[in-house]
Design brief:
The chain is an alpha/beta fold. The protein is built from 21 helices and 23 strands.
């Protein structure tokens, strides 16, 4: 089946509620396009005030949020709510009841309420809560309210996500305060005793005030009272929430992420998609590229870091060792338009912090992204046409080299062109050996950055091996498509987060047009499905063609394909498919196949 449409951030920017809802669904269910959307949020988050509402079940959290929504709307705020509900350990389902209690404001265009199932996640939040918050933040909401499941003292994950943590208590806690204060109460920036019209509410307030507490300079944790059903005390709660934001600031989750271990660098597609979004917003952008390394450099030559004028960034040139310095130089480059060639030494201690055994040196070129050069480059990437960007490091002069054309102000001789095209064919970025030997090390140095797009893997047959191979190949950087007209096999449940086509294999491959960056693998054992796919693959420039089956099965395959007139091309088929690792389990066979595909790709 064709993949669902990718989330449309332009429509979200324009205020489309259906587009926002579709994007949230894509994020929650890891649908195609979700990763690219999340990568595109990098420069847009950190503006919204995130309010976490937590506490034990029955304290009235949802009703209090409904009252708080009315107060925030009266103060002209746009508000999003992420309400996390518990999921059944038996069925996996959830009764999303929190949203029902907030229905009074659901029709207001300034409000967006989304319920998420915890799906068994501990800590009071769901696995996708932070991503949902980022999307609401980037979509321009002033406030994002997060309501946790409501399970008791272990519900402290909200501490890392929310800027202001409000713990709601029911009257009559009594001695229970002592039992739970080491958990949820200690994360509170504001304590609220709801249902304060109860005769035992005053005693609960005294118990909470007796424990005291301070969170950060200039802030003592207040104990407030509310009656959510009537609205009593809600305006005072909103005042203290605003006051806390002024004292403590916003962006807690970004600060927490900044000190965490670095995540995997963005793919080229994600990075350049973000570059285009920043430029569409009118922001200045610079691109930093690793152009030379010595020793154990954290990132290989050709690695990118993109930076916008406000300091937001995506990608990596060192895994964390030198990013701060490079970002500062990038902002200077945006301001004055001048390219910069930077050189850094990465100490053993710095390297150890980002996961390397020893240090090295790295040279980084920083350039402002402008229309003259990067306009054609970005357009070429969108068209998925392979191109090599050649840069003279001394002055930043460029040439775009295609397999059949050259553009740009930098002149290249025949030897330089031949080496550049060889690098492009092998997708191997690096310094050009054919630089001007009569000039200094940097003065005549030329660097080639190849842009060929992600390699593809087309798998025919949604079988058990495919269930292991598809996610492995995706982790290795392949765009994966699984083709199987048998709808009982080709289901999202069996192949989550994978593009699946139920076309007949010959129809699918005619549409997909395998190229020199494509691997085609047939795994069905059924000649009606495998042979039509192999017929098209053998006539294509696909760099790898493999087919499952024993030596005897392959002999029969050879006879059929020879009779079809493909005898000369048959030796291109790797059969039995995969390296001989000795494994027999589906996952072991998948490892063997992926290993052979990667080996073949890099031996070209």
């Amino acid at each position: 089946m064709p993949p669902p449409p990718s989330p449309d951030f332009d429509a979200i920017d324009a205020g489309s509620r259906p587009a926002l809802a579709r994007a949230l669904t894509a994020i929650e269910n890891d649908l195609p396009g979700a990763d690219a959307l999340l990568a595109s949020l990098a420069g847009r988050v950190g503006r919204a005030h995130v309010i976490g509402i937590t506490g034990a079940p029955g304290a009235g959290k949802s009703t209090l949020i409904n009252a708080l929504l009315g107060e925030l709307l009266a103060r002209d705020r746009r508000v999003a709510v992420v309400a996390v509900d518990p999921s059944s350990p038996v069925s996996g389902g959830a009764l999303l009841g929190d949203r029902v209690r907030m229905g009074a404001h659901g029709s207001d265009e300034r409000v967006f309420i989304r319920s998420l199932s915890s799906r068994g996640q501990l800590g009071g939040l769901s696995r996708k809560t932070a991503h949902a918050v980022d999307l609401f933040d980037a979509a321009g909401f002033d406030v994002v309210v997060v309501e946790t499941v409501g399970v008791g003292q272990s519900e402290v994950e909200i501490a890392q996500l929310a800027d202001t943590r409000v713990v709601v208590c029911a009257p009559g806690l009594g001695d229970e305060v002592q039992a739970i204060k080491a958990g949820v109460l200690e994360i509170a920036d504001i304590l609220v005793v709801n249902k304060a019209d109860s005769p035992v509410a005053a005693a609960t307030v005294r118990d909470l005030e007796a424990r005291g507490g301070a969170h950060g300079p200039g802030w003592e944790v207040p104990v407030l009272t509310t009656v959510a059903t009537s609205g009593d005390g809600v305006a005072a709660l909103a005042d203290r929430i605003d006051e806390h934001a002024r004292v403590a600031g916003v962006g807690r989750r970004r600060n927490a992420a900044a000190v965490a271990a670095p995540s995997a660098p963005a793919t080229d597609d994600q990075l350049f998609a973000q570059v285009e979004r920043w430029r569409a917003d009118g922001r200045g952008v610079a691109l930093a590229t690793v152009v030379r390394t010595w020793g154990s450099s954290p990132r290989p030559e050709g690695s990118h870091l993109a930076v916008e004028q406000g300091g937001s960034f995506v990608g990596s040139v060192s895994g964390g060792c030198i990013e701060g310095a490079v970002i500062g130089e990038a902002q200077d480059s945006i301001a004055d338009g001048k390219a910069r060639l930077l050189e850094f030494g990465v100490s053993d201690e710095q390297a150890w912090e980002v996961g390397l055994a020893c240090g090295g040196r790295v040279q980084v070129l920083v350039e402002r992204v402008d229309d003259e050069l990067f306009g054609p480059l970005l357009a070429t990437r969108r068209a998925k046409r392979p191109v090599a960007l050649v840069t003279r490091l001394a002055d930043g002069a460029h040439a775009l080299v295609f397999d059949d054309a050259v553009a740009g102000e930098l002149s290249l001789d025949d030897v330089q062109l031949a080496e550049t095209r060889a690098r492009l064919a092998a997708n191997r970025s690096g310094a050009l050996a054919a630089g001007d030997a009569n000039k200094g090390a940097n003065e005549g140095a030329l660097f080639v950055r190849c842009h060929v797009g992600a390699p593809r893997m087309i798998i025919v047959g949604a079988v058990h091996i495919t269930q292991a191979l598809a996610p492995m190949a995706a982790i290795a950087g392949f765009d994966v498509v699984v083709v199987d007209p048998r709808r009982a096999f080709a289901t999202p449940e069996r192949l989550p987060n994978v593009e699946v086509s139920t076309e007949w294999p010959d129809e699918a491959l005619e549409r997909l047009q395998p190229d020199a960056q494509t691997a085609v693998i047939t795994l069905t054992h059924d000649p009606k499905l495998d042979d039509p796919a192999l017929t098209i693959a053998l006539a294509s420039p696909a760099f790898y063609i493999g087919s499952l089956g024993s030596t005897r099965t392959h002999a029969k395959r050879v006879a059929r394909l020879t009779e079809a007139g493909l005898g000369e091309a048959i030796p291109r088929i790797r059969a039995p498919v995969g390296l001989d690792l000795g494994g027999r389990a589906p996952a072991e066979i998948a490892v063997a196949i992926l290993a052979e595909v990667i080996q073949t790709r890099h031996q070209q």
